[in-house]
Specification:
Elements lengths: L1 H8 L12 H29 L25 H15 L5 H25 L9 H21 L8 E3 L7 E3 L1 H23 L7 H18 L2 H6 L10 H20 L8 H18 L3 H7 L1 H20 L9 H7 L4 H21 L5
Antiparallel strand pairs: 1-2
Length: about 350
C-alpha cells in the first residue's frame, strides 16, 4: 500500500525512492509489526481476560503448570493482526506471493481460532474434530499448491532442490508439487502447534526460522546473488522477505507478553497459522529441506509424539516420560526456563546450519 503511494510521490520528492528497496521495507515491516504487537498487546490481553478465554491445563502434566490455569489464550490473534497490517502496509500488493502467504496464514489462523474458541468458550476439550481440521488444512494447502504451480513462470519455481549440491534439482510436475506442498504446509503447521507448550518456546524459534528463510528469499529475488550462489532466481519472491520480516516483528512483540511467566498464550490460532506460513514460505522459495533443517526443533517435537503414540499402541510402553519432548525434559527435572532457552539455542544452531547451505554447494 505504501509502496504505491511512494511511487507516486517519488516523481516530486526523490526521498521516496528508498521505498523501492526490499531491505528498507523489510526493516520497516518488522518494526511496524513489533510496535503494533507491543501497543495492542495489553488491550488484547485485557479483552481475552474479560471474555474468560483461559487456558485449561493438563492434570497429568508437570505440576508446576497448574498455576497457569486461567491464563488467557488465543494470543496468536495479536500476532496475526500485526503480521497482516504490516504486510499490507509495506508489501507490493500486486505481487501474488503476498496474497498467497496472507490467505494461507489467515485461513489456518481461522481454523485455530475456531478450535480455541470451542475449547475455552464451549468447554469442549477436544475442540474441532481431527477430520474437520485435516479437511480444512488440506484444502488450504492443496489450493496454495495448485495456484503456485500454475502461476510459476520458470521450471525452477517448481523443482525440488537438494541443498549442499550444485546441480541436484528434480522436476516435480503438478501432482508431485501439490503433494509436496500439502505435506510441507500441513506438517509444519501441526509441528509448530505441538511445540507451543511452554512459555516462549514457539515464538522465538518461529522468529529465527522466518529470519533464516528471509535470507534465501532475498537472495533468490536478486538475479545476481542467485546466480552467484547457484540458487533459482524467482521473480517477485523478494516480497516474501517483507512477510517474513512481519513475522519476526510480531513474534518478538508477542514474546514480550509470552515470556515466562506468560501473560498470554499463543493458542492454536497463532501456532497453526505461523507453522503454515513458514511452510508456504519454504515452498515458494523452493527450500523445503532447508526448512526441515532450520525447523529441526519442530520436527523432533512432532516425532516424539508420533513415537510415543506408536510405542504405546504397539507395546503398551512409553519411550518418553511425557510427549511432546519438552515435557519429557521437564519430567526429568529441568526447569521450564531451562528447557525453553536450551531449545532456543538448538534452533539458533540449526538455523545457522541451514544458512550454511547458501554457500556450501
Amino acid at each position: 500500500m505504501l509502496l504505491w503511494l511512494a511511487n507516486f510521490l517519488d516523481e516530486y520528492i526523490h526521498f521516496f525512492n528508498v521505498f523501492g528497496y526490499t531491505t528498507f521495507r523489510a526493516v520497516m515491516s518488522a518494526l511496524t509489526s513489533l510496535v503494533l504487537s507491543l501497543i495492542l498487546g495489553p488491550w488484547v490481553i485485557r479483552k481475552l481476560t474479560e471474555l474468560k478465554v483461559g487456558q485449561a491445563i493438563r492434570t497429568d502434566g508437570p505440576q508446576t503448570h497448574l498455576i497457569k490455569a486461567g491464563t488467557p489464550t488465543m494470543g496468536g490473534s495479536l500476532i496475526l493482526l500485526s503480521i497482516t497490517c504490516s504486510t499490507l502496509l509495506w508489501s507490493n500488493l500486486a505481487n501474488h506471493y503476498t496474497w498467497v502467504l496472507l490467505l494461507v496464514t489467515l485461513g489456518t489462523g481461522a481454523l485455530g481460532f475456531y478450535d480455541d474458541w470451542r475449547k475455552v468458550v464451549y468447554k469442549d476439550p477436544n475442540g474441532v474434530s481431527a477430520r474437520f481440521k485435516m479437511i480444512w488444512q488440506s484444502s488450504i494447502a492443496i489450493g496454495a499448491g495448485i495456484f503456485l504451480f500454475y502461476s510459476a513462470h520458470l521450471p525452477a519455481s517448481t523443482e525440488f532442490i537438494v541443498p549442499f549440491f550444485k546441480n541436484i534439482a528434480y522436476p516435480l510436475g503438478g501432482i508431485g508439487f501439490c503433494i509436496l506442498t500439502y505435506f510441507v504446509i500441513v506438517g509444519t503447521s501441526n509441528a509448530v502447534n505441538l511445540t507451543d507448550g511452554l512459555d516462549g518456546l514457539a515464538a522465538l524459534p518461529v522468529f529465527l526460522v522466518a529470519a533464516g528463510l528471509s535470507v534465501f528469499a532475498y537472495v533468490e529475488g536478486h538475479a545476481d546473488f542467485a546466480r552467484y550462489l547457484q540458487l533459482p532466481h524467482i521473480v517477485g519472491v523478494n516480497e516474501v522477505v517483507i512477510f517474513c520480516a512481519a513475522i519476526c516483528g510480531a513474534c518478538l512483540g508477542f514474546l514480550w507478553f509470552n515470556a515466562y511467566p506468560a501473560q498470554v498464550f499463543m493458542g492454536d490460532v497463532g501456532a497453526l497459522a505461523l507453522g503454515a506460513a513458514l511452510g508456504t514460505v519454504a515452498v515458494i522459495i523452493r527450500q523445503e529441506i532447508v526448512l526441515f533443517i532450520m525447523g529441526g526443533l519442530f520436527v523432533v517435537e512432532t516425532l516424539s509424539v508420533m513415537l510415543q503414540v506408536g510405542s504405546y499402541k504397539m507395546r503398551k510402553k512409553r519411550i518418553f516420560r511425557m510427549a511432546p519432548l519438552h515435557h519429557h525434559y521437564e519430567q526429568k527435572g529441568w526447569k521450564e526456563t531451562q528447557v525453553v532457552v536450551r531449545f532456543w539455542i538448538v534452533t539458533m544452531i540449526l538455523v545457522l546450519i541451514g544458512l550454511a547451505t547458501l554457500k556450501l554447494r
